[in-house]
Design a protein that fits this description.
68% helix, 278 residues, 11 helices, mainly alpha
């Protein structure tokens, strides 16, 4: 400008296809970056080619159309909600295309609202329940402090113990409390990114099922229980080991039910195809 003032460039308006492409790109990024899914699995959930996901992540495919993102916080909230509907549907499997189209319509409607506002600024997405979020984060912070205090107390008791078996019990409790504090801290990082759900990546459902079956076969070949042979601290330590084994079985079963991404339509079709059944 000759008068030296700077005027922002007008953002190019997107076509309907452009909004769909933008929605695909934003959702793909959430599935891979925030939910930790492999690019190939994200592509299956979105019913697009894996190469398209790679190009979306690198920013090559959208090109100048990303300039339409004038409310990045709101757009990420829309994409995160869509990604969660695809990867973790609460009411049965969600079709990738239907979710993408709904997100594209929501993005386009939000753009119209921003365009029609007279210098009012970009609207910020509101949390679903800000008070509940604050209470949850406060609780997690307190839980970490309690677990850390338990670590210190158990280590103190372990040092006072005069036999190795008692020290082993207190050290085990201290180790468990320390691990619990680390788990809660990891959960906190996900909440700070707006994620209340995440899935295991790089692990197949069949591998977990095989591990559960192997554990059960191993236990079937052992005596029912040898705990009655022990007493005192020997019995305490043996029961702690058996409790860990039961916990492992519960964790693996929970991973199968809650921890893995739902099977995509492409995966279901491959499993039920005549060639797959041979």
């Amino acid at each position: 400008m000759r008068d030296g003032t700077h005027r922002p460039q007008r953002t190019r308006r997107l076509s309907a296809a452009g909004w769909v492409q933008l929605a695909q790109a934003l959702i793909a990024r959430e599935l891979v970056v925030s939910f930790g899914l492999p690019e190939r699995q994200a592509a299956q959930l979105l019913d697009i080619a894996p190469s398209a996901v790679s190009q979306y992540l690198s920013g090559k495919r959208l090109g100048a159309s990303t300039g339409a993102s004038r409310t990045p916080e709101r757009e990420r909230a829309v994409a995160r909600n869509a990604a969660q509907r695809i990867a973790a549907p609460s009411e049965g499997p969600a079709g990738g295309l239907e979710v993408v189209l709904a997100a594209a319509r929501e993005l386009a409607q939000g753009d119209k609202v921003v365009s029609s506002s007279a210098g009012g600024g970009s609207p910020r997405p509101e949390a679903a329940n800000p008070r509940r979020e604050r209470e949850l984060r406060r609780y997690l912070h307190q839980r970490i402090a309690l677990e850390q205090a338990a670590v210190g107390e158990c280590m103190r008791l372990a040092q006072r113990s005069r036999d190795e078996l008692t020290r082993a019990v207190f050290r085990q409790i201290a180790s468990d409390s320390l691990r619990h504090a680390e788990i809660v801290a990891s959960i906190q990082t996900y909440l700070e990114r707006g994620l209340h759900r995440a899935f295991a990546s790089g692990i197949r459902r069949e591998e977990i099922a095989r591990l559960i079956e192997r554990e059960r076969e191993a236990e079937a070949g052992l005596p029912q229980s040898v705990a009655p042979e022990f007493g005192g601290m020997l019995l305490v330590l043996w029961q702690s080991m058996e409790a860990d084994e039961r916990k492992h079985e519960v964790l693996l079963a929970a991973m199968l039910e809650h921890g893995l991404p739902p099977v995509s339509r492409a995966q279901r079709s491959r499993r039920t195809s005549p060639r797959a059944r041979r």
